[in-house]
Amino acid sequence: MTRPDIIAVAREQVLERGVGLEEAQVLDVLRLPDARVDDALALAHEVRMRWCGPAVEVEGIVSIKTGGCPEDCHFCSQSGRFETPVRAVRLDIPALVQAARETAATGATEFCLVAAVRGPDERLMEQVRAAVAAIQAEVPINIACSLGILTRAQAEGLAQLGVHRYNHNLETARSYFAQVVTTHTWEERFATLELVRELGMEVCCGGIVGMGETLEQRAEFAGQLAMLEPDEVPLNFLDPRPGTPFGELSAIQTKDALRTIAAFRLALPRTILRFAGGRELTLGDIGTRAGVLGGINAMIVGNYLTTLGRDPREDLELLDDLSMPIKALAETI
Amino acid sequence: MPTFCDGCGRAHAEGDHERCRRRRATTDPPRFCESCGRKLVVQVLPLGWTARCVRCGPVPGVSR
User: Which phi and psi (to 5°) does residue A265 adopt?
Assistant: First the structure.
């Protein structure tokens, strides 16, 4: 018997009923031939418009503690275990407030403080408390944090500070995680995400595609994210960093990246699906536009943690050109 | 011409630096001091970056 066309199935299931694709269905999308990618993107865009609306959420991120991380995430130039060009540095509070102010001026409603750590120690928590208070006093923007694995007390502390959203990426499929990280487990990350939700912060959880995972594992990852039901999924494409174990991998092809965007949107019809790192390398200008017209409804604008992104004006002009409004602060709370 | 490549830290005269140039033109701030070849202390910010060499001092940064 002939299998039904996955685009037709998704149109009825995801677009009409709002039920995300399951893992096996996601795999069908990831296996679509190049000639069908535009169909998948067009449907993903319809799904995003129907279930999320036209607004695009804009975010800036900043590293408050760079490098010297004890973990061995094989994609990361900030691990102290690899010989990379990144040196350890911390960002002081005045510079951080200035960065928040500049980020808010782009129209961004989220500002994420990120630290390269397994989890925060008391010194880092103190830095975060001071940073959050200083930003809240001066800049109208939601504050998110990404500080690794949390204890309950730390998660409670962040929630009490008014941290709006907490990012902790599962990074890849559970079945592939041990090929990416050996110093902690997928389950440890998942436990932090459960704590974050329990304590009332929004859950931000995504990962990186193109780290050598199979299409089956990419579909597995989408299915695992869908079960988690995060408020936001940041979608990164591997930018192979010199000196890391994944430094000699090739960036994934543009069509594969676009297929992935469409597949993840069809698995997660109501989630904020954010363009994150690697899009400059993998998608370029044309692919970025195709992604925003293919299911993406959020962007990190400006630079990343250790690498540079597009000029925010280019992204904002693109959204204006596509008549996609930037989500206002009042809509995010 | 600077002595060292600010992308990989090796002398310009040593090897091919095409990949370093590509990275510097697209996604990377300087990573190494062009004068002494040491790793720079780099802080990437949402709209710019700062860099300094512990021996030679600040590297002119970029702010958008």
Answer: -65, -40
